[in-house]
Write a structure and sequence with these properties.
single chain; globular; binds zinc ion; 357 residues
Length: 357
């Protein structure tokens, strides 16, 4: 038994052993507060370094570059984590911006070498249980934002980073005039085999005339945001591609997750190809700087909780929901960005919209 497991047995007893790993930190009594305090101490203890000093003390890989905070321009670096995986086949450093709190990989991947990360295909993730679980997550996220996604009739949708078309398939079923783009030829080919009305294209938005024409009512970024090395450039482009009244949906790992606060470098959001880690604190800065008018968030309780298939006893289920809400600490972040006031007026009625202008 690992030290961590032994320790948590001592603190919490064995009654939480059967609670799935991803739910434990939300249901053990007192743990939320303990992890929040632990996080604050961790931030306070981490040194704040001048950019020059950080560069001198940090190794730079061949496909990497040093970056400063994309969101606020701060150059100082606060080293926080060093995730590693696949038996140390990969590892990187994650810093915190001491001014705005943004977490990002530094050194980061040079945009022109991004393709190196995706050299091996995703063919293992095309079908079966993985596909079913993904599509369930898409449905739950759409439902969390009310009527925005209930009917696509007459509306244009762009799925940026569409992969093998699992979401495009749902979008065409709901009547959207849907188009997707992706940088992986294998994925695009698989998507077009799956789809009947929707189309998937290879390349960047400006390479595909149907996409470059813009006028989209909806843009979706499913687990894409954390992979973008130049988020400001991309979001300015997304804003320009949206029609008046348009919205942009984001699903990404949540940098305010209670699981990150608990597991640190071992957090499952630190995957091999993730570059930047957003929270409800930092997403508004990105949207404000790129011309969006408002944003609404939907707390993420976990797929089985939201689909009502969890085995958690009801009292623990309630405790989980409460702790996710109080800490803003669900493991995923779900945000709906509004292009302009018209979008806020049309879709924001039952949501808590944070104005950005
Ligand atoms: Zn910053």
């Amino acid at each position: 038994m690992s030290v961590r497991r032994t320790l948590s047995r001592v603190v919490y007893g064995s009654r939480y052993d059967r609670v799935p790993w991803g739910q434990r930190v939300y249901v053990r009594p007192g743990e939320r507060l303990a992890r929040e305090i632990q996080w604050r101490l961790r931030v306070r203890r981490a040194p704040v370094m001048r950019f020059q000093d950080y560069r001198e003390r940090t190794l730079l890989g061949e496909i990497e570059e040093f970056v400063t905070c994309h969101l606020c321009g701060e150059t100082r670096q606060q080293p926080m984590f060093q995730p590693a995986g696949d038996r140390r086949g990969w590892s990187y450093r994650v810093v915190r911006c001491p001014t705005c709190g943004f977490l990002y990989r530094n050194p980061n991947i040079r945009p022109d070498r991004l393709g190196d990360l995706y050299a091996t295909g995703y063919s293992g993730f095309l079908t079966g249980k993985y596909a079913a679980n993904r599509q369930r997550r898409y449905r739950l996220t759409m439902d969390a934002f009310g009527p925005v996604f209930s009917s696509g009739q007459g509306r244009r949708l762009l799925d940026f980073g569409c992969g093998t078309g699992l979401f495009l398939q749902l979008a065409e079923q709901r009547g959207f005039d849907a188009v997707g783009i992706d940088l992986s030829p294998d994925s695009v080919a698989a998507a077009n085999e799956r789809l009947t009305g929707a189309r998937a294209h290879l390349g960047a938005p400006e390479d595909v005339p149907e996409v470059a024409a813009g006028g989209f009512d909806v843009i979706t970024l499913w687990s894409v945001l954390a992979h973008l090395p130049r988020p400001l450039d991309d979001f300015r482009r997304f804003r320009a591609l949206l029609a008046p009244g348009g919205v942009l949906l984001v699903l990404t790992v949540n940098a305010a997750s209670l699981q990150l606060k608990a597991y640190g470098s071992g957090w499952n959001g630190f995957t091999r190809n993730h570059l930047m880690f957003y929270s409800a604190e930092t997403v508004p800065a990105l949207l404000r700087r790129t011309g969006f008018a408002g944003v609404a968030f939907a707390p993420f309780y976990g797929d089985t909780v939201e689909a009502n298939t969890t085995r958690l006893p009801e009292p623990l289920n309630r405790r989980l929901r409460r702790n996710v809400e109080i800490s803003d600490g669900g493991n995923m972040l779900r945000a709906l960005a509004f292009a302009d006031d018209e979008a806020v007026g049309r879709w924001g009625a039952n949501l808590q919209v944070r104005r950005l202008t």
